[in-house]
Amino acid sequence: MTYTDESAEIWVKYLGELEGSYVNPSTGQTETVQRSTFVIVGYGKTLTLRACEDAEYDAYTLSDWQGILEDQETCNVLDNDTNGASSSTRDGIVKASTKFSMIGNFALPENAKAVEYGMLFTTAAGKTLTLENASTDSSIKRLKASKHTGENDNYGQYVVSIKSTSLSGSYDLTYRSYVTYTLNGKTYTVYADKAVSETVQF
Fold first, then answer.
1. Is residue 51 scored above 80 in pLDDT?
2. pLDDT tens across 142-196, in order?
3. pLDDT exceeding 70 applies to what percent of the chain?
4. Res 167: pLDDT
5. How far apart are CA 169 and CA 164, in angstroms?
6. Is the pLDDT of residue 53 over 70?
7. Dist CA 64 CA 77 (whole Å)
8. Which of 5, 109, 134, 158 could cross-link to 145 by cystine, CB 3.0-4.6 Å?
9. Handedness of CA 70, 74, 75, 76 (dihedral sign)
10. Are 46 and 2 in contact (CB under 8 A)?
11. 9: which DSSP letter?
């Protein structure tokens, strides 16, 4: 599925009116409110995605988007860092006859370039899924994706699959998307805010 808007500079996915916390600048107190909640899914005039769920995608200029972000009482953005880079994970394993798949998405601002993107995955309980932990804990698997949708390396949707022919029974699976990128000579990694955990029957 491809969306095009000649005035677009950033694309976001609308997740709905969700409850969240923010610090009220007038009082300094943390308050819980219902806010319009988004995930950044792409940059540029065109957005190309695989249609795997019903979703609302909106296009903005960067100046309009910045104006929306300034009102933290009514707007919240998930899965992003201070550079505007985003890594998000679709909830729900996709099962096929011989494999199961996890779907992720990344979006990077202008002049940023993706170095690596994929999923951190475990069947163990109580693990914090980061690249650092994956390098020292064999129960956390670093599953790199090799290709993505999108016209360049500034955004894309990707699939990471694991063969399941030898699996039988119920498994507790936890996974979290990440993207490592460079911007202005520095390297950054952004993760989905929360890992997805689910029990899957094979």
1. no
2. 999 988 987 677 888 999 999 988 888 888 999 999 999 999 999 999 999 999 9
3. 98
4. 80
5. 11
6. no
7. 15
8. 158
9. positive
10. yes
11. S
| Number of residues assigned to the chain | 202
Q: By CB neighbour count within 10 A (0-12 exposed, 13-18 middle, 19+ buried), where does 157 fall?
A: buried
How far is 2 from 46, CA to CA, in rounded Å?
7
Residues 6+ apart with CB under 8 A from 64: none
In order of 58, 100, 109, 160, the CA distances from 95 in angstroms are 29, 4, 32, 12
Rounded distance between C-alpha atoms, residue 103 and residue 83, angstroms: 23
Rg of the chain over all Cα atoms, to the nearest angstrom: 18
Structure tokens at 34: 């219902």
Distance CA 11, CA 38 (A): 10
Average pLDDT estimate for 5-10: 93
Q: How many CA atoms lie within 13 A of 148 on its CB side?
A: 27
Torsion angle defined by CA atoms of residues 43, 47, 131 and 202, in that order, rounded to the nearest 10 degrees: 160
Pair of tokens at residue 151 = 């016209």
Which pTM does this prediction carry? 0.86
β partners of residue 60: 10
Q: Where are the beta strands (DSSP E) in the chain?
A: 2-4, 10-23, 30-43, 46-48, 56-60, 75-78, 86-89, 94-95, 99-107, 113-122, 141-144, 155-163, 170-183, 186-191, 196-201
